[in-house]
Write a structure and sequence with these properties.
- The protein is 29% helix and 27% strand.
- Strand 15, helix 10 and strand 16 form a beta-alpha-beta unit.
- Helix 1 crosses helix 10, helix 2 packs across helix 3 and helix 2 crosses helix 8.
- The longest helix is centred in the middle third of the chain and has 23 residues.
- It is globular, with a radius of gyration of 20 Å.
- The relative contact order is 0.16.
Length: 335
Amino acid sequence: MFKALVIDKEGAGASGITAATTRATIRDVDDSALPMGDVTVRIAYSTVNYKDGLAITGKTPVVRQFPLHAGIDFAGTVEASSDDRFKPGDAVLLNGYGVGESHSGGLAQKARVKADWLLPIPAGLTPRRAMAIGTAGYTAMLCVMALGRHGLVPGSGDVLVTGANGGVGTIAITLLAAAGHRVVASTGRLHEAEFLKQLGAAEVIPREQLSQPGKPLAKERWAAVIDSVGSHTLVNACAGTRYGGVVAACGLAQGMDFPGSVAPFILRGITLVGIDSVMAPMALRREAWARLAAELDLAKLEALTQEIPLAAALQAGSDILAGRVRGRLVVNVNA
């Protein structure tokens, strides 16, 4: 038996995937409930990401199979493996591939997954540090890499980071500042401005500057953007991007819509790059994690990380959707 945060339907025979028919509980689960897979992992740490919040609260139909253990990422130690690439005792991590959505995931003390989904934890990172980075930090690095592929170098101009107090935002600021970029952080929590500056932000602007309907084109302000918010915020970020700039979009905290104009794309030649962390190719994952291990300031990572026990993950799901979480939440599933 092991403990897991289980997402289930409210009643026997309930149909559909809606907020009204799902519930989240922490309970003991038998090993026989683990899904099919090549590798069984004894989990040490997981996290609570925005998507986990949606699954735990049932506010959006994230979970596609019931019952299911929540958690889109985890780090731990191989307990058993039928794949030659992994052996008992190996330290591994996982993000994405539908884990925590259609395959039981990391907010549990055990997981069984396909070997193709696992990565060895890079040298220099512990399981706890790997989950302090988690899907949010890995996504932030995918964004940074995308900006670099499109020509961003130190000195190109300001880089805007929206949703700056969230997991993606805080790690993106840390990475960009360490690489020598001037970072402008957008947040709805201006009382956290000093914290964002400690991470490396040179300037902090209120969320309201970007979150309301705006003009098709605005004053050219930044060379690049990392946006985890979507909707009007993403539209205004694009409208304020300088000629030839690049915008990496990786989230939808404000909404999935894009109520904007083609003007920034055809009049300023900007590029909008979509960032997918779930099904990214393994080569891209390896590069991202290797760079995180080499480039991320671990002292700053610790400063933006809070550790909670598995029991606290239920409330954390609501807190992250309400914008009450700063930085990263690491879940010690054995506490």
